[in-house]
Structures are given as C-alpha cells and as structure tokens.
Amino acid sequence: MENSDLIEIRHLNYFVAAAEHSSFRKAGPALGISESAISRRIRDLEDRVGVSLFHRHSSGVLLTDAGEHFLARARQGLRIIREGARNIAVIGRGEEGCVRIGIFSSLASGFLSELLRSYHEKYSMVRVDFLDGNPAEHIAAIRQLRLDVAFLTGTQDWIDCERVPLWSERVFAALPDDHVLVAREELAWDDLAGESFIVNVAPPGQEIHDHLVRCLADLGRHPQIEVQQIGRDNLLPLVALGRGLTLVSEAMTVAQLPGISYRPIAGEVLPFSAVWSPRNDNPAFRRFLSTARALAKSRKTGAITRTLLEIDRHAAPY
Q: Do the strands 196-200 and 224-228 form a parallel or antiparallel pair, or are they unpaired?
C-alpha cells in the first residue's frame, strides 16, 4: 500500500463522528473543526478506500451500505488503538509491568519487607519476581538486563552499574538455646574465636564463610567452618542440633525457630545497596527505585528524630 492509500486515525475519527451525527455540520463542533474540514477529510478517506461512504443531501448525510460495514470496523479499530494507548501509558507510568529483583537478605522483615509492602500498595498491578544468587551472578544479570535491580551487601562499586546505599542491618550469631553464650546480651569476636561454624553452599553461604575467616583471622584464629549442601531453611535447624553456629543478618532474626537464639555481634553492621544498570529504562523499576529511595530517606529521618528524642529525654534539666 502506498503512502497515499494509508488511512490515518483522524480519518476514522471524522468518519465515526459524521456517522453518529448524520451531519458534517454537527460533527464539526464535536471535533473542534469546521464543516469544510470534515467534508474534505471524508472525501479523502473515500478516495483512499475506493468507495463512497455517505449519501449527501441538503439536511445531512446517510451511510451507504459500504459505510455501514465500514463503521463497525472503524469503531473497533479506534477502540483497539485507544485501549492500546491507555495500556502503554499505564506501563509507561510504571503502574503495570514487571520488576525483577536479586535478593541477598531476608524478605521476612526489615527494609525489604517494608519496601515491597509499600510498593505493592501503590502499584499492585506490577508483578515482582525474585532471584536468589551471589553478587557476581546478580551483577552479570543486571548488565545483561535480565535483572532490574539487586540488593547487595557492602559498599563496592561495580563497573557499568549504578549503586545507592539504602539501609544497614546488624549481624547476629545464631546459637543453640543451651549454648553458654546465650547468657550474653551482646557478643564480641573474642567470644566466638573458639567456636565451630556451619554455612550453606547456597548464597550467602560463601560470603558468611569469608566474613568469618576475615574477622577471626584478625584475632590470630583460623575458624573451623563446615559447608553444608543445604538451603538456608535447613541451616538453622542444624544449629539448634548443636552442629555449629552461624551468622545471620538482622532481618533473618524474625524467624523464631525452636532451639535457636540470636545475639548481636558488637560493632558488626552490614550496609545494603541497590545496584542497577544505567541502561535500564523499565518504568516499573524506576518507580520501584524511587519508592526505595523515599523509604530509605524516611527511615533515616525517623532514626535521627528518635536519637534526638532519646538525647533530650536523658539530658539534665536546667
């Protein structure tokens, strides 16, 4: 079909309006254009489809048989176009679509739990997919745009990626209930220097292993660490059975399992950042990132306010 034969959306709009008003003159004000402009466009449309669509008479216009058949299809075409435009607009505003997230922390509580709840309240039509993995796997997927964002520990910047720090979590030792260290409210690395540990092969097992080696090596100790070929769900029950201690982030401590106690390690804090590709133009992800930034700012403001109130509460009266 040559360009001169193409039917434009405005042709369909003018045709449907003229058919509904049975008059070019009455359709003009409804469309905000002159009667002569509608008449020219309808004639142009008839030239393009190769058939008369209206019988013209002094009091208005009536559809021909061809016009009657064309009207149903014109309305259907306009409806499809309008619905498509609305759907694209919704996706463009980030109100529908999908966000793919790489996680390295628990979803049970803490920042991620709050973020997902807040995002779902605003954008319930967006599907959120999760992927467990180690940092290297997540970063590779982000660069290839197979992941929209990953929440990773540490402050490392990654090539071809953007990063923003969002929240921090304390590090806890998971102990059997009958362990002698349960009597302490807080632990130091010295307290753990002679202990045996277990980690799982799945993420973040390797990161916990490396963290233990690094922290205890500073005390001149080489920790005994047993790697278990199990998932995170089965690691804590092994701790309860006395097979060894392990480390968890603060968000994990919401899991109150029989036989398990958690104790914070003094001074140990894990910073978490969002990492994504600057080439990512997924509108739903951009909304998600904005929600994460707003939540991080709100939590920080709340923490500062609580600290000031605490200082004021303990301040000596004048």
A: parallel
